[in-house]
């Protein structure tokens, strides 16, 4: 579900980790893969993946919101395999992990990464109305003139 606080919760966890003097990187999934694509162009992709695998807590936000191409699926696999059982990875998504495979170009690589990621995961399913909708300014009711500014 959208707007229920997944990103808020992930960033709150990230802030707790920072207060304990550990490193955290928050990256929206699409921006992360765009950055890796750019790193390929200037031959720094290995250094970028190494950086992503050494950070104490990596937060990947909005994963599988859009389909992942072959290179993105491969990069995801590489990051998860290198971080597996060594570093903490937090993934937020509007889809369940079982749906992620349908969003990837290489299901075998994706399945291997997802299996590693979920094997030691604590899965939180957050349901409810959109927090953004609950906090938006209310619309004035035209039937109540007393609500209009004088």
Automatic annotation (TrEMBL):
Annotated region described as Disordered, given as residue ranges: 128-150
Source organism per UniProt: Mycobacterium parascrofulaceum ATCC BAA-614
An example molecular function term from Gene Ontology annotations: ATP binding
Residues annotated as domain IstB-like ATP-binding: 3-136
Protein name: IstB-like ATP-binding protein
GO biological process terms held by the UniProt record: DNA replication
Keywords: ATP-binding, Nucleotide-binding
Domain of life of the native organism: Bacteria
